[in-house]
């Protein structure tokens, strides 16, 4: 059983108390222990586990909102869908030639599938989106390369921690753009080592010279928000690798 009973926690939260970061992290490890124990005994999970996870995810967002945030409003841009022959031809170039992506015709605004995204755009940077402990590769070694398609040998602690980070992303997007949480679904979620190259010859999931310039929103009708979370620190864990935004020159 969870040492922090989820029903008791629910009652405390309803009375106005909040889970601080220490309590939230203790609850996380209690969940991990409960999952490991259920797996060891080949028994079903207690309903307390998902209930407690929801408390953890909600508390994580409240903690994040107290941390430094750097926001820049940007103009929403989308592929120009003008019907002119010249514009249509330039759009088709992207399909056949990756390098022409930088010349993709754009127009202001955004097109939301089913009207389920916000019509404003911004860029938000959280220097401490995850704490050092939450991204510690000694504690969670499989975070170096993780996909939901290959979890057979991944410990429950790492799987749950990865889900915890993804849920933090979902809640942050929902909060930032005033969207129902249920409308924010992770189309892609994975972690991997990124190795930059000098040319572009392959798909977005490749390494080195097999990383191509691409825009996910151009290929997925419901893909409107992206998040990149560094699990290592420049100058400490690696050299080089500047992350920059390629903003257009001021008019």
Estimated structural class: mainly alpha
Total DSSP E strands? 6
User: Overall mean pLDDT score?
Assistant: 81
Share of residues in helices? 25-40%
Read across the widest sheet, the strand sequence of neighbours is 1-4
User: How much strand content do the residues show?
Assistant: 5-15%
Question: What about the largest sheet?
Answer: 2 strands, antiparallel
CA(first)-CA(last) distance:
61 Å
The dominant shape is: globular
Number of helices: 5
Question: What is the ordering of alpha helices and beta strands?
Answer: HHHEEHEEEHE
Rg estimate, integer Å? 21 Å
Low-confidence segments, given as residue ranges, are none
What features would you describe in this structure?
This protein is mainly alpha-helical and 251 residues long. It is 32% helix and 8% strand. The chain contains 5 helices and 6 strands. It has a two-stranded antiparallel ribbon with strand order 1-4. Strands 2-3 form a two-stranded antiparallel ribbon. Strands 5-6 form a two-stranded antiparallel sheet. α1 crosses α3 (48-64), α2 (21-41) packs antiparallel against α3 and α2 (21-41) packs across α5. The model has no long low-confidence stretch (mean pLDDT 81).
């Amino acid at each position: 059983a969870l040492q922090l009973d989820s029903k008791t926690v629910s009652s405390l939260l309803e009375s106005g108390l909040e889970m601080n970061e220490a309590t939230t992290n203790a609850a996380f490890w209690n969940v991990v222990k409960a999952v490991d124990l259920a797996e060891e005994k080949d028994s079903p999970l207690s309903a307390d586990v998902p209930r407690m996870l929801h408390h953890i995810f909600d508390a994580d967002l409240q903690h994040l909102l107290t941390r430094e945030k750097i926001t820049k409003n940007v103009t929403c841009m989308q592929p120009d869908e003008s019907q002119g022959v010249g514009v249509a031809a330039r759009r088709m170039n992207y399909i056949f030639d990756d390098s022409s992506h930088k010349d993709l015709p754009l127009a202001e605004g955004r097109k939301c599938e089913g009207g389920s995204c916000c019509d404003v755009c911004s860029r938000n940077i959280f220097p401490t989106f995850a704490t050092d402990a939450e991204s510690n590769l000694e504690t969670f070694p499989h975070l170096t390369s993780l996909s939901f398609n290959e979890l057979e040998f991944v410990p429950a602690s790492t799987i749950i921690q990865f889900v915890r980070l993804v849920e933090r992303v979902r809640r942050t997007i929902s909060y930032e753009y005033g969207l129902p949480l249920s409308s924010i679904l992770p189309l892609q979620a994975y972690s991997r080592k990124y190795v930059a190259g000098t040319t572009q010859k392959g798909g977005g999931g490749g390494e080195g010279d097999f990383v191509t310039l691409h825009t996910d929103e151009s290929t997925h009708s419901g893909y409107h928000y992206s998040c990149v979370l560094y699990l290592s620190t420049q100058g400490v864990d690696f050299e080089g690798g500047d992350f920059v935004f390629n903003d257009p020159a001021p008019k």
